[in-house]
Amino acid sequence: MKKAVAVTKVFSVKNGLVMSSKLAMTTVIAVSRRLTIRKFGRLAVSSVMLLAASTSFYALSDEAALKKADSLHEPFSELLSEHVKTIDNGASTQVNYHGFKQDRERLTQYLNSLAKVKKSTFDGWSKADQLAFLINAYNAYTVDLILTEYPKIESIRDLGGFFSSPWKKEIAPLLGKTRTLDEIEHELIRGQSQNAKRYNEPRIHFAVNCASIGCPALREEAYVGAKLDSQLNAQTKRFLADTSRNRMDGNTLKLSKIFDWYSKDFENNANRKSESWQGAKNVNTENLSQFLLLYKDALSLSSQQVSVLEQDTAELEFLNYDWALNATQ
User: Fold this and answer.
1) Which of 92, 321, 131 is nearest to 217 (CA)?
2) Can you give the residue range of the structural domain that contains 145?
3) Are 86 and 57 part of one and the same domain?
4) What would you report as the CA-atom Rg of the chain, rounded to the nearest whole angstrom?
5) In what residue span(s) does the DUF547 domain sit (predicted)?
6) Which residues of 190-226 are buried (b: 16+ CB within 10 A; e: fewer)?
7) Same domain, residue pair 127 and 233
8) What does DSSP say about strands 252-255 and 247-249: parallel, antiparallel, or unpaired?
9) pLDDT at 13
10) Low-confidence ranges of the chain (pLDDT < 50)
11) pLDDT (0 to 100) of residue 270
12) Which residue, 57, 115, 199, 311, has most beta carbons within 10 Å?
């Protein structure tokens, strides 16, 4: 085998080429076959070729699997379809954490697959694939965090303390660093850090799930780049149509605290780059009223209320946020 490697090296240098790993492997197999036939006969050839081919296959198949961003999330999608229950005529969902706990090994395998994705691979994906990856990572690690103490807890906030926060626990090996949920959401997804990628996508607030009743529904499937725009649009409509969390009474908008906490994400987006999956219907919004007008049907607004929003004169009232665990009852 040493002779075979040497011959391959000489062949590459002599021809002034940098051979690909696949071409080099083919050359090694061919040369090894000739040397083996001379020394041991044809019976040994099949073993040599089988070993080389299998090594190459597993190396390439593992790398190829990680590069296919959508298929990476199929195991998580299966878990969500099995353990997330739709309630309130589709307005929200509840999570069967007991079922997730029984299937925790499957969840761990999925999280391990996310941890294997290299930053260079991630950077080579489309922005839609990147954002879907980050949203799924946030949601999956949140479920996994709940499972560390479930069923002993009544809220995700029970996992923190007076001087600590569950969102600041370093629990997620992701893209070369062990991260917190806050890092995934605020730095990687929302791009608060100057060095992080900013996706300029306000609808992510209806996709990331904090394991609480007040939070937008955990979707019954994983997010994938190929249909991310339609998934985010559906989640936004779903959340805004839930009158227990968002509604307009007369000229007063009664909204989830999410619109208070993250108000800047829905405002001053005139400079957002236009891409097919960024911004609802590719429309930029300069204030919250403009954003909500994109979903006037989901909010069931009257013509009078539409006029109030168009003039941006609606009164704002933010509803109390329910931090109780979004577990199945």
Assistant:
1) 92
2) 79-318
3) no
4) 26
5) 123-240
6) beeeeeeeebbbbbbbbbbbbbbbbbbbbbeebbbbe
7) yes
8) antiparallel
9) 39
10) 1-33, 35-62, 65, 197, 273-280
11) 53
12) 199
- In a domain, residue 137? The reply is yes
> Taking Cα atoms as reference points, which of 120, 122, 22 lies closest to residue 72?
122
Residue found under tokens 């197999």: 29
For the chain, what is the domain count? 2
Asked whether residue 235 falls in the same domain as residue 165, the answer is: yes
Q: What is the pLDDT of residue 43?
A: 44
What DSSP line would sit under 205-238, residue for residue?
A: GGTS--SBTTSPPPPSS---GGGHHHHHHHHHHH
Same domain, 50 and 151: no
Query: Of 43, 65, 87, at which residue does a domain stop?
Result: 65
Note the pLDDT of residue 67.
54
Give me the pLDDT at residue 239, please: 98
pTM for the model: 0.79
Is 248 strand, coil or helix?
strand
Last residue of a domain, one of 65, 87, 117: 65
Which has the closest alpha carbon to 168: 187, 154, 152?
187
Residue 268 confidence (pLDDT): 67
Would you state the pLDDT for residue 198? 66
DSSP states of 3-48: HHHHHHHHHHHHTT----HHHHHHHHHHHHHHHHHHHH-GGGHHHH
Tell me, what's the pLDDT at 161? 80
Residues 55 and 177 reside in one and the same domain? no
Q: Do 53 and 177 fall into the same domain?
A: no
pLDDT given for residue 44 in this prediction: 44
